[in-house]
Structure formats: C-alpha cells, structure tokens
C-alpha cells in the first residue's frame, strides 16, 4: 500500500481545509493530478495553493451542502472540536451520500469509546457513517503533537504543569495524519473500503519525560508540575480559556493519566511508506515556542 496508484483527475473535496490536518492535506494534494476543492465557511477570507478551488459551506442551509459536493468523488471530513461537531459532520455525511460521493475519509480519534468530548462525539459520528451506503475510512490518530503548543508560554515562564500524572501518550505529527489521508484518498481501490486505521507516532511519552527532553534541547531545567484535575481546570480558566476549551483540555489530561492513548502502531508506515515523525524532531522544529513568554 505504500506505492500509490492514483486515479487520473479525481475530484477530491477537503471539508475542514483550514484546520491543522486539513491545511496540511490540501498542501500535499495540491501537487497531485487531482481536482481539489477546499470547503470552508468563509472561502473569500482564505488563501489556498494555486489550482485549489475554494467553495463555501453553510450549515444553516442544509440543502446547500449537497450542492457543494456535487461532482465530488472522495471527501475528507474534519470539522474540528466544537459543540456542533456531531451535527455538522453528520449533515456533511448525509449530503455526500445524496450527492453520490464514493468515499469519505473521516478524521476521528482512537481511544474510543470514552465518555470525554470529543471522543464520544466521534463515536456517534462513526456510527452514523457506518450505517450509510458509502465507502469510508476512519482515520483514528492519537493526540496531535500540536497539543504541546499551549505549553509553550508556561514552559518559558517555568509554570508548566497539568493533571496527566505519569501516564503516557503516543503523540502524532499532524503531517503524518495528512499523509495517511492523502494515501487513502488517492488509492485506486479505496472506494470499496469500509475500514478504520489507528495512527500513532513512534513511541509513547509521559509529560515528565517530555519535560526532560525539553531540558536537553533548551539547555535548562524544565519541570512538569503535577496537579489535580480541579487544579488544572482552574489554571486553564485563569489563563483565559473558556469553560468548553478548558473541559476538553482537562479531559485529555485525564486520558493521558490513564495511558488511554499509549498504543503503538505501524499504520503510518503501512499507509504512507515512511516512518512517523518523532516527538523530538517536532520539539526541535518548534523550539522557539518554548523560549519566549509571548503567547503563540
């Protein structure tokens, strides 16, 4: 599967084209011999690579969703974590079925089923997609390495901490998730698939181990302060996060503390032909985030 045989001039739509994975996927697909459509709520406000067509989607007008997907062969679906995620993704799934889309690649999450948002939301969306008469692939990555971006300022100020305890999590680079999505979207046989893939980085880390890795890269001691879930929620709220965002972050810490996302897989290598990027490389590439107290 690591050698991709592309179907000429596929019409591929990316819903969530400005998100972390979506943007990386659009950049990767822009160089391929496909007709690429970026679906976004504000197409006039976004800049995409040359050759990419931007088309607006309006979730307040459900009938417009099917029109936005007419002529599309394959759809990448990722709407981001929000209270409307389940409603919006189900609406796009139904619109894709009605429009005759052949295959949906849904960005999900592994660790299912868990009762924390967004894991429970992905469970509901996956169940709906599996009930429809359409080819599909569920991509279930572990937590993105980008989750450490919010640790940048606390690390710089010496106040980093959380409720992850000594549990471990196998973080993944969003570019590896995008590469996996690209491979599935371009595979000539994927329209007949109804599959799920778990995607991880090369190894699991605890937050104290990440602190030690940062210490070596920065040349100074970085520590991770252990807090209770309630203490961490209070810290996050005091930092300016709203209740919803703080709840998602605390839920992740609880999952980390239980090592619920520690799984190691070779799926990135299987789908893309290359090994997943390491956390050390991601930290090195983003080291400036941890040197300055200026918010990212």
Automatic annotation (TrEMBL):
Q: Which residues form the NAD(P)-binding domain?
A: 16-186
The residue stretches assigned to a coiled coil in this entry are none
Q: Name one Pfam family in it.
A: NAD_binding_10
The protein's matches in InterPro entries, at most eight in alphabetical order, are given as: Ergot_Alk_Oxidoreductase, NAD(P)-bd_dom, NAD(P)-bd_dom_sf
Which protein is depicted? Answer: SDR family NAD(P)-dependent oxidoreductase
| Gene source species | Duganella callida
């Amino acid at each position: 599967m690591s050698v991709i045989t592309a179907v000429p001039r596929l019409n591929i739509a990316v819903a969530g084209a400005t998100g972390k994975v979506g943007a990386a996927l659009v950049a990767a697909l822009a160089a391929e011999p496909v007709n690429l459509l970026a679906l976004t709520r504000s197409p006039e406000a976004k800049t995409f690579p040359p050759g990419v067509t931007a088309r607006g989607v309006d979730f307040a007008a459900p009938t417009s969703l099917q029109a936005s997907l007419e002529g599309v062969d394959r759809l990448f679906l990722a709407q981001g974590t929000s209270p409307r995620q389940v409603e919006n993704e189900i609406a796009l799934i139904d619109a894709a079925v009605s429009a005759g889309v052949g295959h949906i690649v849904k960005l999900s999450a592994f660790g299912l089923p868990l009762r924390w948002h967004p894991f429970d939301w992905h469970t509901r969306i996956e169940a709906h997609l599996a009930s429809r008469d359409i080819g599909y692939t569920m991509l279930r990555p572990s937590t993105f390495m980008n989750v450490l971006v919010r640790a940048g300022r606390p690390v710089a100020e010496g106040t980093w901490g959380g409720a992850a305890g000594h549990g471990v999590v196998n973080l993944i680079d969003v570019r590896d998730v995008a590469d996996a999505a690209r491979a599935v979207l371009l595979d000539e046989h994927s329209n007949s698939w109804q599959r799920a893939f778990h995607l991880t980085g090369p190894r699991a880390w605890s937050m104290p181990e990440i602190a030690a890795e940062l210490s070596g890269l920065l040349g100074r001691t970085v520590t991770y302060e252990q807090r209770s879930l309630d203490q961490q929620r209070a810290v996050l709220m005091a930092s300016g996060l709203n209740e919803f965002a703080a709840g998602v972050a605390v839920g992740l810490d609880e999952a980390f503390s239980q090592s619920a996302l520690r799984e190691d897989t070779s799926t990135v290598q299987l789908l893309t032909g290359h090994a997943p990027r390491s956390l050390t490389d991601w930290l090195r590439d983003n080291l400036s985030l941890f040197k300055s107290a200026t918010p990212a």
